[in-house]
């Protein structure tokens, strides 16, 4: 990304630098999914992860988790179900509610993708000095915490 030069706002300049540096992290993050079968969109991946975190989540809850409209999530679940990665089950608290559960194949796909992602990150991290790895982790944890606080603030507004 070409920048016009330093701005009057040091935080803006830092955000540009962090964004540019993060491109390598994002590239390594997504590279693992390029060899997945079936290929998953980012939204499908998020839906599978949300379903793993919250077994028996309903469609409305999943729509909230992934930030999509319920009809779109319903179609997304149709595709994941057709691929054998997800199944719909009667809800635990209401017979009218449908819960979403990963299949064995869904769990195996997530495990395989995460395993490839961890291996790619380990390869890159092995090329960094130990002290820089520690600083990277410290910074990413702080960034993650700040992002969660920002999300909480947005939800309150």
TrEMBL record:
Keywords: DNA-binding, Transcription, Transcription regulation. Pfam families: MarR_2. SUPFAM superfamilies: Winged helix' DNA-binding domain. Residues 8-145 form the HTH marR-type domain. InterPro entries: HTH_MarR-typ, MarR/SlyA-like, Tscrpt_reg_MarR-type_CS, WH-like_DNA-bd_sf, WH_DNA-bd_sf. This is MarR family winged helix-turn-helix transcriptional regulator.
């Amino acid at each position: 990304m070409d920048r016009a030069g330093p701005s009057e706002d040091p935080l803006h300049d830092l955000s540009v630098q962090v964004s540019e540096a993060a491109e390598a992290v994002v590239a390594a993050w997504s590279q693992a999914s390029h060899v997945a079968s079936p290929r998953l969109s980012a939204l499908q991946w998020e839906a599978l992860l949300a379903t793993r975190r919250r077994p028996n989540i309903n469609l409305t809850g999943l729509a909230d988790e992934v930030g999509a409209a319920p009809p779109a999530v319903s179609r997304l679940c149709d595709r994941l179900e057709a691929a054998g990665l997800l199944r719909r089950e009667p809800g635990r608290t209401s017979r009218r509610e449908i819960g979403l559960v990963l299949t064995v194949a869904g769990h195996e796909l997530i495990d395989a993708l995460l395993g490839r992602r961890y291996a790619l990150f380990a390869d890159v991290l092995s090329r960094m000095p130990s002290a820089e790895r520690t600083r990277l982790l410290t910074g990413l944890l702080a960034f993650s915490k700040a992002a969660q606080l920002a999300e909480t603030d947005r939800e309150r507004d």
